[in-house]
Amino acid sequence: MDRRFFLGIAVAVAIIFFAAAFAQSLMKGAAVPKDRETLYQVSTIDALMQGVYDGVQPFSEVRRHGDFGIGTFDALDGELVALDGMYYQVRADGIAYPVPEAMTTPFATVTFFEPDMRITADRQMNYSVLSTYLSAHLPSQNIVYAIRINGTFPTLQVRSVPRQAPPYLPLTAAVANQTVFVYSGAKGTVVGFFMPKFFSALNVPGYHLHFISEDRKSGGHILDMTTGAGITAELDITPNFAMSLATRGAFAGADLSHDLTADLAKVER
């Protein structure tokens, strides 16, 4: 046959081969779709209550599951605030530090924040009144909500707990040495979650909120606050739940059969 015939065949085969290779490379390079409607949690609040403070998961892994959330660090070294994909460690000095990928957590809760609803406060409220007001507007008390509130807060009381040393004391004893910061006219963002009551052994039932300042330099776990009139809370309805549990270490041997609800309420507020 004519050489041009074989040359044409060779060119056609080459085109098909390179087209297939190019398509395969695009598939490999494409981002794996993230499950953006899942609450991802490391360990349980009852384990943390009993002094299970050793970090069990690096933040390089935690970040894969969310750009928004709260938690703590190895040895209970401060408060986690994750916002817009940036992770901060608010230590006992009240300063917010960027979180390295290799740092680990014993307890964290994160998701990808995409607001589904907004609730605007009609008057100035403290933490307790705001909680009641928000709850009255929730479509269900049996769903997890991620909560974000941007604004200026006339009064704000936050805390952080210093790094603990083994043998670890229970959380009720550890927070006795917490550092409390009181701010007036603080500008920033409230980051946190509402958890149904049936989560009580897994996470904090009701509202669990942290704060990060507008300049991302300070923050902490919110003990109390007042909001200005007209402030808007954005809520992300989060219907799915995934949990990562340690298979060895202190968690494996912890007795998680006790009801710690009363102790948890003291720790939170």
Describe this structure in words.
- It contains 7 helices and 16 strands.
- By secondary structure, the chain is of the alpha+beta class.
- The chain has 2 domains: 1-30; 38-268, Hypothetical protein, similar to alpha- acetolactate decarboxylase, domain 2 (60s Ribosomal Protein L30, Chain: A), CATH 3.30.1330.80.
- A 7-stranded mixed beta sheet has the order 6-5-4-3-8-1-16, with no helix packed on it. Strands 9, 10, 11, 12, 13, 14 and 15 form a 7-stranded antiparallel beta sheet that branches.
- The longest helix is centred in the first third of the chain and has 27 residues, at 3-29.
- The N and C termini lie far apart (88 Å).
Number of strand elements: 16
Query: Uncertain spans, ≥5 residues at pLDDT below 50?
Result: 3-32
Q: How many strands, what sense, and barrel or not for the largest sheet? A: 7 strands, mixed
Compute the separation of the termini in Å: 88 Å
Assign a percent range to the helix content.
10-25%
By helix and strand content, what is the structural category?
alpha+beta
How would the global form be characterised?
globular
- Based on the coordinates given, report the CATH architecture of the largest domain: 2-Layer Sandwich
What's the number of structural domains?
A: 2
Total helices: the number is 7
CATH structural class of the largest domain = Alpha Beta
Strand order of the largest sheet: 6-5-4-3-8-1-16
Strand residue percentage:
35-45%
What's this model, at a glance?
The protein has helices spanning 3-29, 45-49, 59-62, 127-137, 171-174, 250-253, 261-268; strands at 38-42, 57-58, 68-72, 79-83, 86-90, 96-98, 104-105, 108-111, 117-120, 125-126, 144-160, 179-195, 206-213, 219-227, 232-238, 240-244. It is an alpha+beta fold and 269 residues long. It folds into 2 domains: 1-30; 38-268, 60s Ribosomal Protein L30, Chain: A (2-Layer Sandwich), CATH 3.30.1330.
